[in-house]
Queue: 3 jobs
Job 1
Amino acid sequence: MEIIKGRRAVRNFLDKEIAGKDLEVILEAGIWAPSGSNIQPWEFILVDDPVLVKKIKLVSPGLYGLPRALIVLCVNRKRCEKGGKLGENMAVMDVSMAAQNMMLMAYSLGIGSCPIVSFNKLALKQLLDIPEHVEPLLIISLGYPTEWPQPPSRRPLEEVVHVNGYGEPFKR
Amino acid sequence: MEIIKGRRAVRNFLDKEIAGKDLEVILEAGIWAPSGSNIQPWEFILVDDPVLVKKIKLVSPGLYGLPRALIVLCVNRKRCEKGGKLGENMAVMDVSMAAQNMMLMAYSLGIGSCPIVSFNKLALKQLLDIPEHVEPLLIISLGYPTEWPQPPSRRPLEEVVHVNGYGEPFKR
């Protein structure tokens, strides 16, 4: 719970390298996400070349600050086909859960992260030679934070949680 | 990493109650997921009434075993509107990340879980009085496992991860 509640979206990064071993552990956390029918539709592109990070930043309005690395989480459509009509939807969920594993893992290593969905998909595909059947869904930025932001406001459990029927309030 | 790698999809449950305090902690983990533009599009319906769990099981082919509780994770479409054209996609991601937080939290409490996307959405909405603008996306089953399953096979990092361009292999 400490890790889950402590993680923050970080948008200001120190100019400090992330060790290769730490990046590997973060990527490894991703592949242990749940995957519907164990399809594992994901492809992860690690970007640790600073020049490429800057190029991607230019086509990604949602990318703030200058992170030291990015992970681009993609869905491989060819793998989704096995999932039938639920395949596409499950793939988005699988990739999102993998992203959350990565961000929690990063935080537990003292590394900040931010999920980014606002980017030019076509430009990103060109920059990273991503083939037709692979779709980038989400970018995670990574770097040591200049500071850990304050927690965002959150709707309380009493508002979000319903018990045994919609509108039946949750009591602690 | 121990929690991330240890979590399993559990489909056989003991007939053992989950303490209310533990359910609260699991739900609390959900509201600390990242949320694009802090929209928090989620509504969570906790189902701990055994009769209702059985009724939901009847309309959910993806629900195995007899869990002691369910959490139905929904998107509130009215909240999504603030997100513009990316709103719907972000909402699926937010809810998926909340689900992953919940499943990791459950595991850290010794409680098994399984994400379920195969259910009759209309029947579920009727059983839980879910209004028109709220869409159930995912069910998480919860219960103490009869045993922890073996880890599923996973595509290795060398296959899943590309470095600075698609197809450029990752080396440990």
Job 2
Amino acid sequence: MLKVLKFGGTSVGTLDRIQNVAQIIKKIKDEGHDVIAIVSAMSGETNKLIEYAETYTKVPVAHEMDMLLSSGERVTSALLSIALNAIGYPATSMSGREAGIVTDASFMKARIQSIDTTNMKNAIKAGKVVIVAGFQGVTEQNRVTTLGRGGSDLTAVAIAGAIEADVCEIYTDVDGIYTTDPRIEPKAKKLEKISYDEMLELASLGAKVLQNRSVEMAKKLNVNLVSRSSFTPEVEGTLITKEENIMEKPLVSGIALDKNQVRVGMYGVTDKPGIAATIFTALANANINVDMIVQTVGVDGKTDLDFTIPTTDLEACKTVMNTFAQQARNIDYNDSICKVSVVGVGMKSHTGVASKAFTALAKENINIRIISTSEIKISMIVEEKYAELAVRSLHEAYDLDK
Amino acid sequence: MLKVLKFGGTSVGTLDRIQNVAQIIKKIKDEGHDVIAIVSAMSGETNKLIEYAETYTKVPVAHEMDMLLSSGERVTSALLSIALNAIGYPATSMSGREAGIVTDASFMKARIQSIDTTNMKNAIKAGKVVIVAGFQGVTEQNRVTTLGRGGSDLTAVAIAGAIEADVCEIYTDVDGIYTTDPRIEPKAKKLEKISYDEMLELASLGAKVLQNRSVEMAKKLNVNLVSRSSFTPEVEGTLITKEENIMEKPLVSGIALDKNQVRVGMYGVTDKPGIAATIFTALANANINVDMIVQTVGVDGKTDLDFTIPTTDLEACKTVMNTFAQQARNIDYNDSICKVSVVGVGMKSHTGVASKAFTALAKENINIRIISTSEIKISMIVEEKYAELAVRSLHEAYDLDK
């Protein structure tokens, strides 16, 4: 098999851990597989370089930041290659350019346009382990670019897609995707498989293991992703794959919790056509990520609008909302709430999934303030003090500990 | 004027010093010059990376070391470019590859083969300061290489030659070339000009400011080199140029001292033809740098051989000499000696230069053990305890303090 492996900043955070990664690769090579490993910068390095640049200006030139930041991954790739060669496993490091990764010229947030896999294929043919510096590519003019947050995962998925690898394993410090956060519910179980869509919902709902951009790309390129840990490489991780590859589709795969939400209430709005559209357009123009929306028309002909935004957008949201202050009786902001979500592909073909959730929360006297549903997800806004209780109740209600 | 500037590790050793370098460049730009600046890694960075690699093996793969080590200069070049842009001076960093530097494939000690100056010229035309990551290039296969010790100086000189710059200024922490080491003789004077050949002699005799490889290249490419300090940029440095450019040729330019010498004596060798050749061939094959040689034939038909080697080669030298032990009465090693040298292009056309040196040392009762002369140099081996006294006597004898 041709395996693409990706090791994040924590997995290569010290010289010892890089040595450990070399051992993981050695074992996979010994099993007869070919390996392309993508590495991040040693944890802390990228932030250090950003701090350096910011001593000169808060807004450093983007194309110079990419020259600066791309060095961290180059260092790790060379060190890992040295470590592998030292234990008798021929390896060669490659920069993004050498790995054939061409991006657009959006410095600091470039998008991969194409990958010429020739160099990598030749090195594999020559029996070498290929170590690619993640997070970077070059423009058509050969200028180094970086891919933004989560860029090394993207590098791995894109390479796995381009070279048609059998699997793309993302090594972090957690050993897979769980039915819920084990710190909240110790009975949480690691999932063997999960579909791209479920993973996308879980990721956007607060599960931090994989980022949406990489999962979306894996889905698009049909790459079998595995989430596993470099600290416990003997533990099988979780396979993220297309729905058709999952034989037994579970009703519910997991419970996600997102505490970084603010509920915005705009009460007593004169219900003239288009008012909601005007408000949400203004919020969108300010790049505010509005999530759940409920509109209620009262008997007096006035409208109440309720919606949620990420906590980080709160100040920007207040600025926009103030321009509408005249048109409402009052506007309030409540950050003592959280979003609990039930995710599962099985929901598509089953009824009664939502009512089970409502019943479970009702049994614990937890009021649901806003509800929103999609084909494979039910999200509920509840008071933040009930967050953990809500997660545990739902986890039990759907028998996720079994 | 088009100026090529080179800033060494100490000159860019901290974020403040990089800021200081940006100010030096700003001033030169304000005077109406175009600037290409070559930078080293921040001092300590390269050694840190070497230590990292050596945790895995004492002999890391060379082509991976180059990937590793080249990152330090990339970081500095990006930081300096960010600092310049931040104060309103458009700048662009370039890796060795972007600067068009192609080398052979001798990793860790590559030699520059060609420089395509197109990118640099275009950036200069666009009004930008070009910041080049020193010490590195790429092979024709586009694999990063490094140039070995003193590599950033070489980058600067080679670029200055290829782009026909008016001057190549090497900024370090000393402000030029002195008639002798000012720590030994406080009356030492900074030289305004010195010829390539004198500089080469001084450098090989222990003056640490510029390395021979760069001076040789400057001579070959006819590049006007200036040695000056980034800590006192207002002080004019020393111009190293061709002899024809120096109107008043001084009799003697400087006195050099090298304490890292061992005198090897091989006494009572049976004087058969070819014995000296056999010994010195064996030493050369062991990469031992033999310097001054004196052969004396005694009345008994036995030969005494005296020569000097660098202290670092002592152990290797003993190993070789032991194989000849049978052929001599005895072999001894004396590291309590030093080499004092008088350098000056004026010697070519003057007589009596050497006798002035001998007289000066004799006046202080300093015995000369070995003498060797070249067209522009007289070197003398004396007891190490007389080192400073010898330097000061010679400095005075040739009126270098005037």
Job 3
Amino acid sequence: MTSQTQPDTPDNIKDDIDVDGVSPQMGSVTFTDALELDNGRKLAPFTIAYNAYGELNAEKSNAILICHALTGDQHVANRHPITGKEGWWSLLVGPGKPIDTNRFYVICTNILGGCLGSTGPASIDPQTGAAYGLTFPVITIGDMVDAQARLMDHLGIDQLFAVVGGSMGGMQVLEWASRHKERVFAAVPIATAAWHSSQNIAFHEVGRQAVMADPQWMRGDYLKHGVTPRNGLSVARMAAHITYLSEDALHAKFGRNLQNRADRTFSFDADFQVESYLRHQGSTFVDRFDANSYLYITRAMDYFDLAAEHGDVLAEAFRGTQSRFCVVSFTSDWLYPTRESREIVQALNAVAANVSFVEIESNAGHDAFLLDEPEFFATITGFINSCAQKRGLPAA
Amino acid sequence: MTSQTQPDTPDNIKDDIDVDGVSPQMGSVTFTDALELDNGRKLAPFTIAYNAYGELNAEKSNAILICHALTGDQHVANRHPITGKEGWWSLLVGPGKPIDTNRFYVICTNILGGCLGSTGPASIDPQTGAAYGLTFPVITIGDMVDAQARLMDHLGIDQLFAVVGGSMGGMQVLEWASRHKERVFAAVPIATAAWHSSQNIAFHEVGRQAVMADPQWMRGDYLKHGVTPRNGLSVARMAAHITYLSEDALHAKFGRNLQNRADRTFSFDADFQVESYLRHQGSTFVDRFDANSYLYITRAMDYFDLAAEHGDVLAEAFRGTQSRFCVVSFTSDWLYPTRESREIVQALNAVAANVSFVEIESNAGHDAFLLDEPEFFATITGFINSCAQKRGLPAA
């Protein structure tokens, strides 16, 4: 059983959030049938919020699911209702863009565990009438994907034309291609890995400890006390943000430039532009993100290990796949370096899957997948068009 | 004017701190004549604590100054009085070691701004009778070196046979070779750079924000309130510690291994060994380090830019040098990558300095300079012996 709010775009919202004429349909569906989680627990009810762009064709064969990253959300191609910024993938998704909303029905859900409409630790636990906090179950990337699959059931979409995502979004793409093989015509895992490295776990642990060290975290119960662990979450975001860039990108962008001053102040002010930038990143993040969601989602990423789910043989995760894969990495991405994409490609080759692999030259670091990278866009455009032809969908 | 505590090694201490028969002479000197700081302020009085090993020869020509890194101290080759661990460079410094205390008089000072006997923000401000806290002046690497030079004056050492240091210790070596050229016969900057990169400033800023976000920091006045910002300093240490290693080292050491458990706990416990390790690094660090010292020393590193002190031309920092240089980097050090050592070498070449450069193959990351790296030890041994011969000191 499900209940839903109709995807709708009231005029007063639409005026604010449209970008380049993109009108998202925004909705959410609440499922009362429990979701069986990887940890053995059942979650019910649960809600999945999503934005959709474009029109689903009569055959329901033109749907593309976009999977967002750790701190992303469903506002992929429209102005963000909180920050007012353009959608996080407006460069890639929209009318005439590489993922063309004139041709495809593009869906992006807020992930399970998130904080923008889907059920997560900030949601009300119907058992208690208060926010879950740390009583929310620890979820996995697989759980996020299973929740998305329930939404596809609800929408009557048997097979997604494509599942596309970068970073943690790429992990979801891989889980889709493994758990729901027959429902994925094409898969595009970008700047991602089949398992979370020791170093990445380490950075996440620093972020979690920063949140938990904040007295306003209150063992996860801050919402009940009407406070927010702003400082801790801000530090977590600052540490993580460094890993999204590259030393070259930081050097090119900031170098040792001073922030609106002629000389060092011999104080702990933000003398350097890079300090000012990071502080800004930290403080704006806490306005739009829930601290416990940050803990749960980083944990899900740390737990992600697709090989471990298949007897430590990654290829087994994909055995029998008929999907077409396009694996993309970026040269300066040190969070998910190219060698981790190559492992995915090798596993796919081992089961004779149809796979393309492209390493894009970029000095922008991990964040390259969100930026204006023409070679990347050309890769996505080419792959999508080629798959559309094979799927019998209209050409561009 | 100076006052001093005699270097002494009471038996009850010596039993605890000797390693491999190394008996440090531990002392401190308090200078009443002010130190003129780079920020224009004067600091008086100030104390420099130091350990010494071996014997100064009659000509006072066999002294080697070891400069410690951010979280190091003067306990270079003896058991640490707080942690009980072997000296941080016991592998390199001691009888028969590459820096041989049977032949050389080895000195290591706790740096100005430190917290193990030298004057720093935790010291009592004689003007107020309370700890300086944030009223302590913001110091520079140059200030640290000038304070060490005052100690050498006091000891009657006109010229150091060698100045050796890694990481921030290497920055001090470079300042010695620039500010006090005639007092340095040989200089060994290891795993370091002539300026602190944007990315390194960024990581330091995260650490400082973590400390300052801790309510027990109390705007730097925690000592007056009898508390310690343990949580914040611990998070700062955890974030920094990741940068001292390499992804390869972390992967080899921990991989995705679980900590004393068969499976994931689906909780926020330290499931992974790397999490447990980092938490341990954080919590033990706060037992031996002052949070404000951490702020001041990271700030000094961020401010370090030897070229900027010389009209943005690094070579000018070394013009006229007669010192012999041995520059060492490690392949997997991403905090101070080899290209930053090459910049030092190029600047030295530009002024026709006598310079050797060695890049050591290691997967241990920045911390390699503290570990058992035979090629590194061979490099130091060869360079020291060659310089000793030129200086007319006895052979090994």
